[in-house]
Amino acid sequence: MKFRVERDVLADAVAWTARSLPARPAVPVLAGLLLEAADQRLTLSSFDYEVSARGGVEAEIDEPGRVLVSGRLLADISKSLPNRPVEVSTDGAKVTVVCGSARFTLPTLPVEDYPALPDMPTAAGSVEGDVFAAAVAQVAIAAGRDDTLPMLTGVRVEIEGDLVTLAATDRYRLAVRQFHWKPEADGLSSAVALVPAKTLNDTAKSLTQGDSVQIALSGDKLGEGMIGFEGAGRRTTTRLLEGEFPKYRALFPEQSETVATVETAPFVDAVKRVSLVAERNTPVRLSFSDGRLVLEAGSGDEAQASEAIDATLEGEEISIAFNPTFLLEGLSAIGSPVAQISFTTSTKPAVMTGKPDVEAEATDEYRYLIMPVRLSG
C-alpha cells in the first residue's frame, strides 16, 4: 500500500476515527485503525464490537491495499506532523510515514484478525446536523454516569412520524428535547432506541460539518440492537443499551403554582459567584419574590455569599435550593436569553425552559426538570 494525502486532512480523519478506540481493548487488534487505500480514496475504520466508525478522504493512491496500525499512535503522530503532504507506505510488516524531513516507522497488527465492521442499518430519516447536535447536547448532560445502572447512561430516542423526542435522566434531573426530522417512509411510529449518551454526544458533535445527518435503525420494529448515523462522508454505528427507561413523562407536574422569569446570563453569573463558597454537594438557595431573586450559599461558621438580581414572578413567593452544578448545566442548555422556571412547592421538582419563541414550532421544545435539595430545618 502507498498513498499521499494532505497533513490536515489525514490528521482530522485519523482523530475522528480513533476517538472511539477502547482504552483497554479486549484483544490487541481492537486498538488498531484499519487503513484501506483504493480508487483514489483512503478509508479509515475502527471497531470495538460496541461502536464502529468509518470515514473516507480523497488521497493519491499509488498502490492500493489495506493495513492495520495502532490508532492512538497514528493519531498522535498525524497531529504533530509539519504542514506538508504526508506519504504513507508499507514495507513488509512495517508502515512508514514520511512528512517533510520527519519519518516514522510503525509495526503493523495482523489485519486478517480484525473483525468485519457491522453493516449500516437501513436509513430511517434525516435531520439537519446543527439541529441534531444541539438537541443531543441539551439532553446528554442529564444522562447518568453510573455504569451499575446502564439504562440511565443512555439517551432514549423516540420517533413518532416526523417528530423525534430525546430524553435522559440520572434521577436528579431530567432533560427532554423534541425536534422535527424527515422520515424516509410514512407511518414510522413507536420507534424507540436507548443509545449510550457519550457515544451519541460525540457522534452528534463530529457530524455537524455536514448539511444533514442520516439516522438508521436496525430490526423489523426499528431500534432492535443497533443504531447508525451518517453525514459528511462519515458513519458510526453503536449497539443499543438494554433495560427499562423510566416513564419520564409522568415526572413533569401538570400545573405550576409559581413561574419565575429571569435573564439567563446574569442568573448564570450570579450562581457561579455564589457557589464559590458552596462546599461539595452544598446547595445554592434561591428566594424568589416579585421583581427580585436572592441567591445564597454557605451557612453558620462557613464562608457565605449572597447576591440579588432582577426577576419577574407570577404566583406565590418561593424559596428553594438546588445543586449548583445541575442548575448551571440546565441554564446553559436552554439556549435562550431568558429562562423560565416553573414551581409547585419547594420540595418538588422545578421545570426550566427557555422563554417560548412565537416563531418556533410548539413541539420543538426543551424542558429541564431538576430535583430540589431539601434544607434542614
Features:
377 residues, 9-stranded antiparallel sheet, alpha+beta, 17% helix, 6 helices
Walkthrough of the structure:
The chain is an alpha+beta fold and 377 residues long. 17% of the residues lie in helices and 41% in strands. The protein is built from 6 helices and 27 strands. The protein has helices at 7-18, 71-80, 129-140, 197-206, 264-274, 324-333, and strands spanning 2-5, 32-38, 41-47, 51-58, 60-63, 65-70, 86-91, 94-99, 102-107, 123-128, 154-160, 163-169, 173-180, 182-183, 191-196, 212-217, 226-231, 234-239, 258-263, 284-289, 292-297, 305-309, 312-315, 318-322, 338-343, 350-354, 366-370. The strands form 4 sheets. A 9-stranded antiparallel beta sheet has the order 6-2-3-4-18-17-16-10-14. Helix 3 runs antiparallel to helix 4 (197-206). It starts with a strand and ends in a 7-residue tail after the last strand. 39% of the residues are buried. The model has no long low-confidence stretch (mean pLDDT 91).
